[in-house]
Amino acid sequence: xxxxxxxxxxxxxxxxxxxxxxxxxxxxxxxxxxxxxxxxxxxxxxxxxxxxxxxxxxxxxxxxxxxxxxxxxxxxxxxxxxxxxxxxxxxxxxxxxxxxxxxxxxxxxxxxxxxxxxxxxxxxxxxxxxxxxxxxxxxxxxxxxxxxxxxxxxxxxxxxxxxxxxxxxxxxxxxxxxxxxxxxxxxxxxxxxxxxxxxxxxxxxxxxxxxxxxxxxxxxxxxxxxxxxxxxxxxxxxxxxxxxxxxxxxxxxxxxxxxxxxxxxxxxxxxxxxxxxxxxxxxxxxxxxxxxxxxxxxxxxxxxxxxxxxxxxxx
Length: 315
Description:
This protein is of the alpha/beta class and 315 residues long. Helices cover 32% and strands 28% of the residues. The strands form three sheets. Strands 6-7-8-3-9-10 form a six-stranded mixed β-sheet, sandwiched between helices. It has a four-stranded antiparallel β-sheet with strand order 2-1-4-5, covered by helices on one side. The protein has a four-stranded antiparallel β-sheet with strand order 12-13-11-14, with no helix packed on it. Helix 3 crosses helix 4. The longest helix has 16 residues, at 178-193. The chain is globular, with a radius of gyration of 25 Å. The model is unreliable at 1-5 (pLDDT under 50).
């Protein structure tokens, strides 16, 4: 986390959301159940979870689009529904309905004017954002000619146009190619480093390993784990030994006690307990086998995420 200020910038306090699926309220869908989260100024906070976990509902409530059934959200010490608070938020919904007949310049001028911007400041902001995403040459092109990734960049642009201190981004990398994802990562890192707060959700967990300060895992409308990124990256560390060739039968039988994978003449052993490495290398040496590589592998965010979701028995 980039900020030393430990007073929560965003407080989600016992928030629940229940939807009724008919007018008589005979059936209810509980989207969120007693959610509590603190987000601090100057950090990039990621909310992750499977489809239907409640992530988008949580963000819609934070943005003031959906009302909670119970609980409250405080942003900068005020109720999140306060108009002065809403003006400090930039929001990218999961699906943004863009007016495809308009050009980016026309659309962003419209969005900027709705946020009280105008004149040269707005014009400069639009050009700077389009240039950051390498879109400046398309600024006067109707958006109906854009790819999905290009449209996603315009969606991000409208959220950051008025340079709000808080960004709420629902799947901001959706549709972006690797170059576009790097552009977005660089922008968000820079934006966070300026003291702004970024709250996002994404299914691209490898991207979050690069940029997130803290992470929360959500499933079935509840928070399962919250913590700094490092707490999600130490799961299932092991040593991986790779070599090629055919194993003698007596060696193969001995190696079955380890996590052994054989694919053609490529052989991989995953050794969970490092204290067994010496004995294992002696065994391989006795058969004249020299490993092509020995590397320490650390579990990824995805490993930890899948383990926690699998262990959640409230499916």
